[in-house]
Amino acid sequence: MAEAVVIFVLERVADVLAEIQLAKDVRLEILRLRDELKMQCFLKDADAKQEDDLQVRNWVSDVRNIAYDAEDLIDTYILKVESYKYKKWNFVKRYASTLKARYKIGKDLVFLRTRISDVSISHEAYGIRSTGEGTSHANEGLLKLRRSTPHGQDKDIVGLEEDIASLVARLVSEDQWRAISIVGMGGIGKTTCAKEVYNHADIQTFFDCHAWVYISQLFRTRDILVSIIKQVSTRTNDTAELGEDKLEEMLYKLLEGRCYLIVLDDIWSTSAFDSLAKAFPKNHSGSKLFLTTRKNNVALQADAQSLPHELRFRSKEDSWKLLCRKAFTESIERMCPPQLEEIGQEIVAKCAGLPLAIVVLGGLLSRKRRLSEWQRVLNSIRALLARCPNAVSAILALSYYDLPYYLKFCFLYLGLFPEDYLFSARKLFRLWIAEGLIPYYDGRMEDLAEEYLNELIDRNMVQAARLSANDRVKHCRLHDLVRDLCISKAKSVEFLYIHLKYGIFSPFPCSDSRARHHAIYSGFSSSPYVSTPNLRSLLFFKVEQIECGISLSDVCRRFKLLRVLELEDMKLRRIPSAIGEMIHLKYLGLRHCSIESLPEEIGWLSNLQTLDILENAKICRVPDVLWKMKSLRHLYMYVCPFAGKWRIDTLQHLQTLAGINIDSLRGINSANLISLRKLRLAGSFATNRAEIFYSLANLLNLHSLSLKSMDSLFPSLSALSSLRHVIKLHLSGGISKLPNPHEFPPNLNQLILHQSRLENNPLEILEKLPYLFVLRLKHSSYRGKKLKFSANGFPQLEYLELEFLDSLEELEVEESAMPKLRSLQITYCQKLRMLPEEIKSLTTLQELVFEGMPRRFIDRLQGEDRHKVQHVPSIIKS
């Protein structure tokens, strides 16, 4: 881990030398410091030995502390010198203060180099040897790999077939209310098994309504009740002001008389179940509660008459099969080469049949093909088991140690997120980049961050929870045991600190912590303003529906070295002018903070990469200072048309520009926005239409475009054909006539229509788009009664979504239409009577999703229309 810290600081020093104009004497001292810190050849060996040797561990800690002190010294100097530029001082005072700061950092750097020299010499006394050249740069080799495509759901289900069949039979066979539980230790596959059962075609057909909620150790009854209500009813706006008793009564009435299935995943205590039990009517319509828990007493509390289904450890044969599927992912047969089989069998035996251990170990072995590498893994497992008899803990720890240095910090960073938190991959990339965890290279750092996340997923350290239509990861989460490991390792290197309610969680004494990354969960009852002035990250999470009091002025005053400040859902209203003094800030998250304006001083944040002020409906003023923030990469706005006009054509690094008014695009040289890839515009397109589309055509890297018309109708959209690089298009607003096929962007593969209010069948035009891969017809996009999919139409379409088409009554599918369709989702189309007979000819269809559909539609699907969809592996109704 010390290797990761030192390399991280070296890259930070390199950034400073490249970006900041330093005085000659200061630059010279920093160069000398950089040379002294280049000791990776010793750190690799030290990192390997520190688990077994206290002296080596202390040596590594000294190196880590020196590296952090070096970073603090440089950042503090830059903060001082840069702050002088904004003070109303005369030249003499500014020059004298700068000289004083230069003298101090020079003196401190000399002392720091002495400390480095002393520590470096002492490595021989601890038997730390050189391993040759330092670790190669993070992105070498990695970018040569083909980008992996992790799977959102586990297709390697091994050894659960009988469990799934038994549970499905129990859930659908009885007319009585029952609470059926899966019981087993952590990591044995309870949630995996429950998901397979929940998505089983017989389950989806048998029950009228379904809901899945995750309970965990930290939960609020109110949040769980609201979540279930949202899944079984459309009356989601009625819950905001209701207390627990009223919500309980509301849910009871919604479920009464219906055949429901409610999954309570990972429920830990009988008191947790008791707090929810009264909301579930015990009717005679075959309704079921379906629990996963580690404790038998919880299962019996839920239903003493129902025998808990206990998951067993995998057999020797199933364990071996599962390991091979995870370790040999590039092979179609997923077979182990003969020379590795004997040692592989010995390795898998150490997992004792626990699926999580097998899966994680398979991810580790998937990147090793030589017998000597597998032997080293086996030796490491033996050594870890000698210290820690718990097999899963030992194997998870081994998987962490096997991570390359550039992934260790990225993995530890995930420990900041709350338990079972569904985190956005895009947001994670921006946080990693802001923290300096992603090195700069010739391509996009976001692409490299995606490679890092995919590698963590390939190693089964992170779970991909949601995928996009093109199989890219959208959201992720950590298994709770992996999160425990993450926090434990972060604690050992003082990487992070989590503020929770008193007495629930405390990774280490806060007063002694040098942790640079802090997370504060709402409901925290003590002051978060601890004595950590060198804090680099401060993230707030609203994990409960409780306001978390915060003084942003205090944050700006106390933590001037912050790089990341995430305040989403904190009710701030006002941003203090002191925000401009946080010159190291690279990520500022102000989404849904009820802010009304931004101060002029925000323009001082010249290093800011991400500014997110979405979902602030009251914001009425944004000063014209965005042009100064030349490091901006992602800008998310929520601004009314009267909030002003901004110059933005100086932002050559800008990749995402969302929520901006069309007027801000007029009168600027859009060709200067050379990095812009994603753009969301709103406003009136009726005037200066030619100028608008000319500006859009100049954006040569634009891939994703969203246009929202504030007029009753879009003007002619024929100029879309000039957008040759756009592959994703979202049109929101009235359209009197769709463009002809040749008038759409020529390379378009994703199209979303919303509030288009089209009277004529749009498919007659859209089915001729040659590369269309995804089509989403959203709320009120079509007013007609019938949609006809013609023969040979939509040759490349794989995803089709129909949502809130209030007049739609009939679908017609001709033979050979949509030959590649994989997923069909129909949501709240209340007048749609049934699926067409021809749906059974769509042999490529893998998934059908129905949400908020009328009772008669669902009844037909479960009865006379069942033969139409019996070939589809996954049918989900909610």
TrEMBL record:
Keywords: Nucleotide-binding, Plant defense, Repeat
Domain Disease resistance protein winged helix, chain residue ranges per copy: 416-486
GO biological process: defense response to other organism
InterPro entries, per database record: Apaf_helical (IPR042197), Disease_R_plants (IPR044974), LRR_dom_sf (IPR032675), LRR_R13L4/SHOC2-like (IPR055414), NB-ARC (IPR002182), P-loop_NTPase (IPR027417), RX-like_CC (IPR038005), Rx_N (IPR041118)
Keyword Flavoprotein: no
Domain NB-ARC: 161-331
Positions of the Disease resistance R13L4/SHOC-2-like LRR domain: 546-833
GO molecular function: ADP binding
Pfam families documented for this protein: LRR_14, NB-ARC, Rx_N, WHD_DRP
Coiled coil: none
Domain Disease resistance N-terminal: 5-89
Gene3D superfamilies per the UniProt record, alphabetical: 1.20.5.4130, Helical domain of apoptotic protease-activating factors, P-loop containing nucleotide triphosphate hydrolases, Ribonuclease Inhibitor, Winged helix-like DNA-binding domain superfamily/Winged helix DNA-binding domain
Highest taxon listed in the record's lineage: Eukaryota
Keyword Membrane: no
Official protein name in the record: NBS type disease resistance protein
Lineage: Eukaryota, Viridiplantae, Streptophyta, Embryophyta, Tracheophyta
